[in-house]
Amino acid sequence: MPELPEVETVRRGLEPAMVGARFTKVAQRRPDLRFPFPERFAQRLEGQEVQSLSRRAKYLLADLSSGEVLVMHLGMSGRFLVTQGGKTRAPGEFHYEHGGLGAHDHVVFELSNGATVTYNDARRFGFMDLIPRSGIETSKHFAGMGIEPLGNELSGETIARLFQDKRTPLKAALLDQRLIAGLGNIYVCEALFRTGLHPEAPAGSLATKTGKPTEKAHRLADIIRDVLAEAVEAGGSTLRDHAQVDGSLGYFQHSFKVYDREGEACVTPQCTGTVTRLVQSGRSTFYCPVCQKRSRA
Q1: For the domain that residue 266 is a member of, what is the CATH number?
Q2: Residues assigned a catalytic role
């Protein structure tokens, strides 16, 4: 499933084509994706201007002139293609030939600026919804969602406050969307490695007995932001199905230090450790048992 950097990469690719343009025609080619489309989906979009395009966790949010928000989630394999002049153009110099109507092109947005934005989803785990802007934070998608990991909300103090007295394994706490929204398996593994924290250490170990952040809490907050920012800059981590809005691949996977490197030597200079995999809550965790000793939490 695309993680936060992949979704942010898609948002940046869609923004120039969508913001400030009106939907002139919307083709909805099936009644549902993961969930049914909202009633009168196409009719409610046609004629509306996209005033802004933002991201909340792993969701894309298009604010419309009608006062509604078009909520879009990529699911496992969803992607958008932006077509103008018969070609799907990439940010930069990459060009991707879409090859006409695809069997998995489920929604096609035609825009007043001449762009066509196509949503393609082979597995149909993505979805779209329309929600009044005034009710977005209390909607079923966002109610109870945690803080954003990019920006100023995430800090050592915030981590200490969220994790204080928690015996939950640190990795599980970081993946809890009620605490921090948008973090996924790949980038949590990478951030914990860079911070030297064991994924099974108690989350509460990042706060002192008085609730103050430890040095590692401050460092973890900084590193999470750094890892996500680096991945966004690199275009995300393309694993299996995911591609950028232009069809090109992300390249952050070439910078993975531990993720999916089981059995390989640790990249830390002079470290004699080997990347190890363990399973936590059904997900693979990759870490170096030398650099990330549990006692170091």
Answers
A1: 1.10.8.50
A2: 2-3, 58, 283
